[in-house]
Amino acid sequence: MRLLLLASLRAQTGNATTAARIQNHLHAAGHICVLKDAFMYESPTEIANLTSTDKFDAALAIHLYKGGRLLQGSRIPFGIIFGGTDVNEDIKCEEKHRVMGAVLGEARFAVAFTVKMKELAAAEWPDARKKIYVQTQGIKTTPSETFDWYRFLQNADIPTDTGSLHMFLLICGLRRVKDPLYLVDVFSDWHRKDPSVHLGIIGPAVDPLFTSEVTEKVKRAPGVHLLQEMPQDDLHAAMKRCFAVVNSSISEGMSAAILEAMDLDIPVLARNIPGNAAIIKHKETGLLFSDPQIRRKEKSTSLKLESLAVSAVSDRRGLRVLSRPDSPVFFRDSLTSSQKTPSSDHMGPE
pTM of the prediction? Predict the structure, then answer.
C-alpha cells in the first residue's frame, strides 16, 4: 500500500519525531509511506491533486487541525492521529473546532495516545467515539557514543570542574504551550543558593517572537541556559548525563522527551497535566508538580515556604523517589487528598 503521511515536520519537534517513527514501522511492514510537511500546503485541493498524481492508496495525518484539515473531501480513505494541542488547545477556537469536527466525521479512524485524550475528543464529538482507538506511543533512544559532555557544558558556560553538578534539561520547542519560562525564576533562585544547580532549555525556535522573550528572560537568570538544538543522538547522550529531565508544558499529547528520558533511566519531573499524568505515576515513575514551590510543615516550626527535599534515583524497574533532606529538588507534591498515602502526608500542598 502507498500511504501519504501529513505532519508538521520541523526538525527536533515531537510531531516530526513521531512521524518518522510511524514511517519506519510502515516501511518495516512492507508499505510505502511518504512524509509531507503539512505547512507546505494551503488547501485540501493541493493534497487532492497530490494524492491523485502520486497514486496514493490512503493517507494519515498527525494533528486533527494542522494535518487533518488538508484531507477534507479526500478522494482516498484517511485516518487521524491526535497531536495533543488539537484536542487540548485548538478546540477552544470556534472555527478550528468546526473544521476538526468535520475532519473527524470523514476519517475512517482516529488514534489517541491516551485514554484521557480519547475521552476529551469523544466529549466534543460523541458520534466519533467508536472510531477513536487508544494506542500509546513507542520510542527508541539512540545516544551517541562520541558525544562530548564536557565540551557541551563548556559551550553553555557551565562549570565542568565540579563533581556535584546537578544539570536539569527542559527539552521543548520554544512556543507558549510548552511554557519554558514557568521554571526560570525558581531555578535561578535555586542556583543562587546552590551554584551546582543548572537548568538547560533546549529545542527549536518554533515561535520567533516567543523565542526572543525566552532569550531576554534567560539573560537575566543566572544558572539558566538557552542551549543550541542538536541532533537527536547527541540529545539522547546529553540526557543520559543530566541529573533529571523536566517538563513544564501547559498541555501535552504524550511527551516524547519524557518517554525518552524514561527509556534512558533518567529521572523525570513534570507538570501535572493530563498528558503527563497519563504516563507518570507520581513518586513511582516520576514526580508530578503543580507549582514550582512547596510549603512544608516541620514538627517544631510553623508553616513556611521552603524547598521540597527529595532524591530521584532511577533503576531498570523505573524511577524511585526517596525523601532525603540533603538532596534539593523543589517541586510541589501534587497528590490530592484522595490520592495521598501516609508516607506522603508531610509533603502535600498547603
Answer: 0.69
